[in-house]
Amino acid sequence: MTAPHTITGARAALYLRVSTARQAEHNVSIPDQRRQGEDWCAARGLKIVDTYVEPGATATNDRRPVFQQLIEAGTSKPAPFDLVVVHSFSRFFRDHFELEFYVRKLAKNGVKLVSITQEMGDDPMHVMMRQIMALFDEYQSKETAKHVLRAMRENARQGFWNGSLPPIGYRAVAAEQRGAKVKKRLEIDPFHAETVRTIFRLALEGDGGSGSMGVKAIAAWLNERSIRTRDGGRWGLGAVHQILTRTTYTGRHEFNRRGKDRKLKPKSEAVVVEVPPIIDQETFDAVQAHLHARNPKKVPPRVVSGPTLLTGLIHCAKCGGAMTIRTGKGGQYRYYACSTKARQGPTACTGMTVPMEKLDDLVAKNLEDELLRPDRLEVILSTVLDRRQEQTTRKRAHVAELNKRATEAELRLKRLYDAIENGFAEVDDPDLKERIAALKATRDQAKADAERVTASLSAEGRKAVAPDMLANFASAARKRIRNAEGGYRRDHLRALAQRVEVAADEVRILGSKSNLLQALIAGTAETKPGAVPSFVPKWCTRRDSNPWPLPSEGSALSS
Fold first, then answer.
1. Domain spanning 170-298 has what CATH number?
2. Are 536 and 289 in contact (CB under 8 A)?
3. What is the enclosing helix (H) or strand (E) of 333?
4. Domain 11-148: CATH architecture, name and number where available
5. Cβ neighbours of residue 500 under 8 Å, at least 6 residues apart?
6. pTM higher than 0.70 for the full model?
7. Nearest to 40, CA basis, from 107, 116, 102
């Protein structure tokens, strides 16, 4: 067996790493690794030419910036050092395959990896010992990760927060003390929770001058009004989309939903943590439907902009597939036909074939007779209006809370100024300056949030629904939906109905109450630019809303 050795006067580079704050509290902290490495090199007459420090990085992969700098230097020609000195091989890598890969990569350039606590030679026996130790390091790393994840899952099951940055709109607060550990839970951050509610409102209803807004339009709207992110930055598409799709805001945070590779884990591995809701479930579901309908991978742009009245809305009730246009007699006749049957034959779906003009008339007539009546609109929208009233009440309470917070901050500032004026405090005190700056920020943020919420309340007040609005809306919509020019009629129909299902004995028309209310408030049945109808069935869900087929039109649905 060849004894371990080093070359006196050789050039050495130290590589120091810890992966967690817990390790830094023990004997593998960065300062301790540095001291031991320097002493070891000095005792052997080695010259330290560089030191690479990597705090807070795992050794299970090579995605470490400082590590890559070390490898780049060690493989350059000529190399600036002869040895890479580490406290233990686990500081360099905790994957036996990757360890051997980089050891050999450095060796090809004449650079050797040595450990001050695991000194080894170059003979086959020492190489095998190093590989065995690397296997144990890898096993220990995986076992530790497994136990840590198990503890975090249990912590989440008990309703506690596991320490990552909370979603915007929440903050982590101490809940209880267990020994030396402080358990935390999430609570609503009133400063940023209103921003979250605003984003959902824009996605669903718009800002009063437009229809429902997409992710890009929402980001632009927020940035134009200097509504910043939690860290004071500008909004981007990713941040807005993450808020709109995060179930945490409904009161159900999912822990361990994704792995380190960001891929979804099986649902059985996720732990649901109950948190205070910022958005109700109905609003969240409606926004998901809007996002789904806007997704170009799901709904082609021609579905919204095409000239056919029911394009993108009409579906076969038997198989759920879309119905598409078919022609006959050289284009003289046009039909809606089940696309599943057309593509896969009658064994896949027996499907329906319906004359396009007759079905268009049936749908338009039903909307006129059964939906566009003031009394019917009042019944359908009653629950939505009640919910809006609850939201208004909550917003007013939130404004009062924000104003109270701003007033308290102002009073504290006044007391600090009085203390300075009376000589009880030094104006140059750094702690005092920091306190004054924090109070000013709290006061200004509270005032800004209160003004924004008050403005939204004023806008909602201007959009209040009066009885005469129902009658005017119904009358105007009945006229516009019958416009024979096509496009204008189609846009109006999409604000009233978002899905039409055709069966052999009936036609079911489904729509969204939110879209209907949006059209009503705008004073027209027109879908605003950029708005895409939701596929959330809310109204026309009972047989009495859809008495199809009409006695006089009994043959309209025949093939």
1. 3.90.1750.20
2. yes
3. strand 333-338
4. 3-Layer(aba) Sandwich (3.40)
5. 310, 313, 314, 315, 363, 507, 508, 509, 510
6. no
7. 116
